[in-house]
Write a structure and sequence with these properties.
The chain is mainly β and about 120 residues long. It has a single domain, classed as Immunoglobulin-like (Sandwich). It has 1 helix and 8 strands. The strands form 2 sheets. Strands 1-8-7-3-4 form a 5-stranded mixed β-sheet, with no helix packed on it. Strand 5 and strand 6 form a beta hairpin.
Length: about 120
């Protein structure tokens, strides 16, 4: 089950979110051979044209269990103020070469309007 978090995005500003992942036993999650993806939408039912993709990377070294999600100021400037939904997924191949996708984070983001534009 994904962790639920709410955060604020300032319209027209660069955004970087660092996520630290731990395993059930409390140890740092090893993200070797994992990829990460994250998307932001106005609503769950928004079409793909209204989807904003975060730049999503597993930080080096992958054994530190950190991922970084970011949006450029150009991307956030194009967002209309208001409430959005997002989620973050990890993907890797298991020992049988099956693709495993795990939603690790989800929630709402509030975009606040910019005065200085």
């Amino acid at each position: 089950m994904a962790q639920y978090e709410e955060f604020t995005i300032d319209q027209g500003a660069d955004v970087a979110i660092e996520v630290h992942l731990v395993s059930l036993d409390g140890s740092t999650k090893n993200l070797t051979n994992h990829t990460v993806s994250a998307k932001l939408k106005k609503s769950y039912n928004s079409d793909s044209a209204d989807t904003v993709n975060f730049t999503s990377i597993v930080a080096t070294p992958a054994t530190d269990g950190k991922i970084t999600l970011s949006l450029t100021n150009t991307q956030t400037d194009a967002l209309k103020p208001g409430r959005y939904v997002y989620d973050v997924e990890l993907q890797h191949q298991d020992s049988d070469n099956n693709t495993i996708i795990e939603r690790i984070l989800e929630g709402r983001a509030q975009v606040t309007p910019s005065v200085t534009r």
